[in-house]
Amino acid sequence: MDLRESYSRDIRIFDKFYKWGWLALLIAWLLIYSQAGGNYAAYILNLIFINTIIAVGLNILTGYTGLISLGHAAFMAIGAYTSAILTVKLSVPFWLALPISGAMAGFIGFVVGLPSLRLTGIYLALATMAFGFIVDEIIIQWHSVTGGAEGLSALPPTICGFTFDSYPKYFFITFFSLALVLLSAKNLLRGTFGRALTAIRDSETAAETMGVNLGWYKALAFTLSAVYTGLAGSLYAHLILFISVDNFTLLHSISFIVMIVVGGLGSITGSVMGAVFITMLPEIIAFSKDYLPAAIRNTAGLQAAVYGIILMLFVILQPSGFYGLWVKIRNWWRMFPL
Amino acid sequence: MIVQQIISGLALGCVYGLIALGFVLIFKATEVINFAQGEMMMIGAFVAYTLITMLHVPFVLAFLLTLIICGCLGIILERVLIRPLVKESVVSIIMVTIGLSITLRAFAGMIWSYDTLDFPHPFPETPVQIGGVVMAPIYIWVILITVGLVLLLYLFFKFTTVGISLQASAQNPLASLLMGISVKRVYAMTWAISGMVGAVAGIIVAPISFLNCNMGYLGLKAFPAAVIGGFNSIPGAIVGGVIIGISENLAGIYLPLWFKDIFAYVIMLLVLMIRPEGIFGTHEQKKV
Amino acid sequence: MAFLSLENLTISFGGVVAVHSVSLNVNEGEILSIIGPNGAGKTTIFNCISRLYKPDSGEITFQNRNILKHKAHQMSNLGIARTFQNIELFTNMTVIENILLGRHIFRRCGLLSQTFFYGKTRSEEIGHRRKAEEVIDFLDLQAHRNKRIGSLPYGVQKLVELGRALALEPKLLLMDEVSSGMNLEETQDLMIWITDIREDLGITLILVEHDMRLVMGVSDRIAVLDYGRKIAEGLPEEIQSNQEVIKAYLGDSNAVAKG
């Protein structure tokens, strides 16, 4: 059984060729919908793309390598502030500020990551949480550079004289960035590097015996994850045009975790699913408010409660997330006796 | 001034220590961390508040009732959320308890509102003077209650059958299983005790701090306490809490004011980098 | 100079001496078995050689290199591979992915080139996969190729671990109780593979084994440990008639009787 046609078949991005067709259809729909679906729809699409980049980044760390981070909002903040400060205060063009933001977040991720990677499980979770608090405090106190607690304005990006000053226009930037992120993540994860990360997650002892330098690879996973999250931060700053520490709290870090748990740990498709779901969740809640009993309909805690309950339900009942559910349904469909 | 800061730091440190104790009890027994321990504390405070101000239950009785309610809550949470994940990774359990903390906070907000409530002062409020230092009696009470509770726990683990079996099971689950100790019961007991300790922390912190559905964030400060003391050491939790409480207050005097808020986390990061097992903790090598 | 030599190797855990001043030489191309009752320190020796444990004292030299100066993840680069007593596979990965991990030390492309996954990276990956397929064919694992480890029976998992170690193209292979959990037929296959590994692939083997038939059938030499000390070393026939060994095994006399 399982005769191979060629080795390259095993390493394709999609195992079946027709899936490229579905992707083309999806892209076509996204293009039309973002340009013709109105300002708000385009805004949501932008947000989904940015969240997807974060989810992919965090999934590399948590889903693939098995390391938890409660401080990813801080990397997003580093990316966002770097980009805003570079473009507004130093007049650096956006196309340059974007990669610098990613590099900055990655650099700090590496510096912070290297010593803390001896830590596992809860200790790493606590260290990254502390890192998040400290970064927030630095942003508040470093008033002259970051604008302190009042926040900081960013500008719509201009590339080659064209200003992306509306959500439908900005769509092209987030879309292009997301495409690059997805492609690079997929490439890194389907080869030697990705296998080494997954090996660390499944058995550190065996990975080490196979020649995987644990500290170095964990640091790389941390750095890569921070780079993606920093890029997302930059994109976010130029989308909402005003940033403050309130955009990058512990709760944000937790919501990123909810994204990858709900979507599916250790899966790029899952990251996309989770980001779509969590970005749409406020909309879903707003929509379903009319059907909820009056007692809880308008309380401020409703959204938080839904987040919390969803997180618990998925971890306990559907740990492989939406992606796992999708795989299950697909297999069931294939086995269907008809 | 400094003596007062040290004593109030000591009192606050006791509260951190009690919350940290909640983490440590669970971690020792099950290698699980409960991110919702701060929220257990908040629930304890709110339950006591409801009993005292709305149902007019006398303080001591309300205190005991709160302990029972929070103990039961602990058992229920363990049964519903943690037991299904017994074989799962640490990451899953961290996530579930994070989900729990968000949910508890949200529900508390729905039930008791988002306003800051006034917790009835159970102790006399006239300042007392000890050795030339004037201070509120509540601080002394907090310290006394903490010492009493730790003593009680010590006696419990040392001399009662249940306590001894809990310890045995934490040290060697397999052996104690062979001795006929039910691991499931031990886990449930641990969560119950941890819930009660959380409730005590809530009742004593509400009068000095504030009563609000966000008071669980205080629990985040207890992580540094547990890390410094060592995540598997009961005395370590209290010592770590006191270190954080006092040094935080002193940092407030000698360092820029803003530094006070993150001081605990800076210390925690340093400890994690230098000696992750903390002051009293022990490090175990994985067997292959 | 011996291929691998242990000199006065000693390691203790919390006051209990697990391995006590053991010296042992392994020659290139031979199959050496280490036997002994449970808790004799056999696996501990493997853990010292693969640098998972740090010995309290003693020397380990491999091809004239002091390997105590190297880290655990560098052992595979030196040419030492191993399997584990209690299976340490990557449970959420497929069989082929597990075996591909054995190719980790042969990676040549940096992260940047992997990001583009084109040209060199692509052909390198295809090369790794070809090699992994050879291992799969060698161990008859074709039927399990794309299955996840978690879904495989114990005996097959042991084979996958062996395959993963072989993909490293090691010079020295440490096999820790590979036959445990295998039925009679699988064990017989294993005996053939062990000789093939030595004859065809030219790999030196150290076996920790309980199955005496296997040990007596394939070993060139045997070393016997008891309570962390080496009590005998020699040809299979010598070991079978060694009084000291028989005494050590007295409580476990069935094991000798089986062989």
Protein described:
The complex is a heterotrimer of chains A (338), B (288) and C (259). Chain A has 16 helices and four strands. Chain A is an all-alpha fold and 338 residues long. Chain A has a domain at 18-246. In chain A, the strands form two sheets. Chain A has a two-stranded antiparallel sheet. A two-stranded antiparallel sheet of chain A has the order 2-3. Chain B has one domain (13-216). Chain B has a two-stranded antiparallel sheet with strand order 1-2. The model of chain B has no long low-confidence stretch (mean pLDDT 85). Chain C has two domains: 1-79 and 171-259, P-loop containing nucleotide triphosphate hydrolases (Rossmann fold), CATH 3.40.50; 87-169, no CATH class. Chain C has helices spanning 42-49, 75-78, 95-101, 111-116, 120-138, 154-167, 184-199, 212-218, 236-240, 243-248, 253-258, and strands at residues 4-13, 16-26, 31-35, 57-62, 65-66, 80-82, 172-176, 204-208, 221-226, 229-234. The A-B interface holds A 62, 66, 68, 115-116, 118-123, 125-127, 129-131, 133-134, 137, 140-141, 205, 250-251, 254, 257-258, 261, 295-296, 299-302, 304-305, 307-312, 315-316, 319 and B 27, 33, 81, 84-85, 88-92, 94-96, 98-107, 109-110, 114, 213, 220, 223-224, 227, 231, 258, 261-262, 265-266, 268-269, 272-273, 276, 286, 288.
